[in-house]
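A favour, since you know our C-alpha cells better than I do. Just paste the record in under my message, thanks.
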Amino acid sequence: MLEKIKKITEEFFSKLKVEVDNIEVKQEDENIFFIKLETNESHFLIWTHWKNLDVITNILKLILLKNLWENIVIHLEVNDYLESKDKKLFRFIESKIRIVEKTGKDVRLPFLTAYERKKVHSFVSDLNNDLFTKSEWEWKNRRLFIWKEEKKLTIDIDWSDI
C-alpha cells in the first residue's frame, strides 16, 4: 500500500509539473498516511495561508481513493511546513494556557480544523493535569475551549474513607 501511494503521489506531482526531490510515505495509523515531500517549489504548493496545500491534499486524496478503492486520510508535509505550523500553533496554545492558569477563566480559541483541534486536545492533556479542553457547537461553528477544573475540598463526615 505504501509503495502504491508513493507511486501515485509521484505521478500526481509530475503531472502538476512540480519538481519533487524526495517523497516519503509512512503509515501513522489504520488508513492514515503521512506523505512528506521535499521540493524547491514549495511556494507553489503551499501559497498564502496554506490554501493550495489544502486543495492539493484533497485532490490527491480523491485520486488515491479512486486508484486504491479505499478511503484513507493523508497528511501532506512539504519541506517541514506542517511541523513549523504546528510549532506556531503550540506556542499560541501555550500563551492561552498561561492565561487560563493565571485567571482561572475559560479561553475560547479561534476556529481550528478538526485535525488542529485533535492536536490541541492531545497537547493540553500531555502538558498539564489541571487544564482540559472541550469542543462545543457543531460543524463550521465548532470551537475549542481550554478550561481549568476547580479543585473542590471534600469532607468525609462519617469517616468511612479514613
Notes: The chain has five helices and six strands. The first strand starts at residue 20 and ends at 29. The domain at 2-79 is CATH 3.30.300.20 (GMP Synthetase; Chain A, domain 3).
